[in-house]
């Protein structure tokens, strides 16, 4: 058992989620340290997206509590949780320019105009999307769209980013390019990231710690090397462990 994390950025306590009679998340516990990059890794259907959606507040949980930066957010609206989320499908507004896509949520939230402009300029610089700001999403490549989607989380100026398979719709070359960029983004921002994937390479290269999930349960939570060298059971070994 790993030592408890003092002042976790995200703390998930005894979280259960049922869809009807189906138990999808089973008394799950997870503490994420400030600035940590956690990857939720597991096969399709194991509950990764469901867990992320619970943290984001997009699903009501059946039991348990969720804390973000020490605050109990279990029953808070998504917008009040201090998180930014990036989905697999870019979820951009097709009729708006990139700039409008980035500013829309901020305008709704009543952020002053000059502050919005400042945040967009910073995000555009970090993600290298300055030349795209006046384009519509339909005029962008898949990789560019996903950058804009990340930008939309970035301008919200939050401490915790949630990513749900952000690279799965991209081809292999773009996937590895954006993987590197996400890593650099994390180095630069030093924020907390919870990143869902079923891709072992993404998990091994991005994570400070990997939570390997199966059937709504975290099987092992450890640094990539530890999981690779000392998988706790056959499932983890088969999914990610060393061939020995
Ligand atoms: P993953 O993201 O790991 O592929 P999900 O979290 O999407 O898995 O799904 C976990 C389980 O919950 C699956 O068995 C899925 O069929 C089920 N599930 C997901 N969303 C719903 C829903 N809205 N209603 C009923 N069952 C759902
Ligand atoms: Mg999923």
Automatic annotation (TrEMBL):
ABC transporter domain spans which residues? Answer: 10-240
The way this protein sits in the membrane is described as: Peripheral membrane protein
Main location per the UniProt record? membrane
Gene Ontology CC entries for this record: ATP-binding cassette (ABC) transporter complex, substrate-binding subunit-containing
**Keyword Ribosomal protein among UniProt keywords:** no
List the GO molecular function terms.
ABC-type transporter activity; ATP binding; ATP hydrolysis activity
Which key words are in the record?
ATP-binding, Nucleotide-binding, Transport
Q: Where in the cell is it found?
A: Cell inner membrane
Q: Which GO terms describe its biological process?
A: carbohydrate transport
Q: Which family does it belong to?
A: Belongs to the ABC transporter superfamily.
Kindly provide the name given to this protein in its UniProt entry. Answer: ABC transporter ATP-binding protein
UniProt source species: Rhizobium loti
> Parent protein range shown?
1 to 244 of 368
């Amino acid at each position: 058992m790993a030592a408890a994390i003092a002042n976790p950025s995200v703390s998930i306590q005894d979280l259960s989620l049922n869809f009807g009679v189906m138990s999808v998340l089973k008394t799950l516990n997870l503490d994420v340290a400030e600035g940590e990059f956690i990857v939720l890794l597991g096969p399709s259907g194991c509950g990764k997206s469901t867990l992320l959606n619970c943290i984001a507040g997009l699903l009501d949980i059946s039991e348990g509590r969720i804390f973000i930066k020490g605050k109990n957010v279990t029953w808070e609206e998504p917008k009040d949780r201090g998180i930014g989320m990036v989905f697999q499908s870019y979820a951009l507004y097709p009729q708006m320019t990139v700039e409008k896509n980035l500013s829309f949520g901020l305008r709704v939230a009543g952020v002053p105009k000059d502050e919005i402009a400042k945040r967009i300029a910073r995000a555009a610089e970090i993600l290298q999307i300055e030349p795209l700001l006046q384009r519509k999403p339909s005029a962008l490549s898949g990789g560019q769209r996903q950058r804009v989607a990340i930008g939309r989380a970035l301008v919200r100026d939050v401490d915790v980013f949630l990513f749900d398979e952000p690279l799965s719709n991209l081809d292999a070359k773009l996937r590895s390019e954006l993987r590197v960029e996400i890593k650099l983004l994390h180095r630069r921002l030093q924020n907390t990231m919870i990143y869902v994937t079923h891709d072992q390479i993404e998990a091994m290269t991005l994570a400070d710690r990997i939570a390997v999930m199966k059937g709504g349960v975290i099987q092992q939570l450890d640094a990539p090397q530890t999981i690779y060298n000392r998988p706790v059971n056959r499932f983890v070994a088969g999914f990610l462990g060393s061939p020995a």
